[in-house]
Write a structure and sequence with these properties.
Structural class: alpha+beta
Distance between the termini: 47 Å
Radius of gyration: 16 Å
Shape: globular
Order of helices and strands: EHHEEEHHEHEE
Helix content: 10-25%
Largest sheet: 7 strands, mixed
Number of strands: 7
């Protein structure tokens, strides 16, 4: 099937689709009790806390949600306001077909309005698909957090990948970043 997805802002009604996609993409989801770690109320909280600087975008194909990505504050201190953490999830049946690329390109094309110069992604070491995806899209490995992810009997490293963007012009980063 040819990809003709639409990328749009998330709506409150997207919560159940987001949860379903998250659970299918979570590398720890097959472990006992992991499905209970994130629930519908958590996703609804995510949707309620979106802002212009920290949006959630949905990818749709034929009016079916097939992926989503979110931007969150990287560290929470004003000196890091020009950085956003990106999380990106695509239904397994749609992976490798350009959905993630469409979401990432949408975020990058709107970086001036969103107001970031750096994107940071935390990727489980065992998530080869995500590591390959982000590296293929010009993200570099900025660090490794050894044995930091723990869920039941599984312990895993997490890589910190990042990409820096050039300032488009003097006004490209939102003014409130500097206040």
């Amino acid at each position: 099937m040819a990809l003709n997805c639409v990328v749009r802002h998330a709506e409150f009604e997207d919560a159940s689709a987001m949860l379903d996609i998250f659970r299918q993409c979570d590398p720890h989801s097959t472990l006992v009790n992991r499905h209970n770690d994130i629930n519908l109320l958590d996703v609804m909280d995510w949707l309620e806390t979106t802002t212009d600087r920290h949006p959630i975008f949905m990818a749709e194909q034929d009016q079916q949600v097939i992926g989503w990505c979110s931007l969150e504050a990287f560290y929470g201190l004003p000196s890091f306001d020009q950085a956003c953490e990106i999380s990106l999830y695509v239904l397994p049946s749609w992976q490798g077909q350009g959905v993630g690329k469409a979401l990432l390109e949408h975020v990058i094309q709107h970086r001036q309005e969103i107001g970031f110069l750096h994107l940071v992604a935390y990727i489980y070491a065992g998530n080869d698909n995500s590591l390959c995806f982000f590296k293929a899209n010009e993200f570099q490995t900025w660090g490794k957090l050894p044995n930091i992810a723990r869920s039941e009997e599984r312990v895993e490293d997490v890589y910190l990948l990042g990409r820096e963007f050039e300032l488009l012009d003097d006004s490209s980063v939102r003014e409130e970043v500097f206040t």
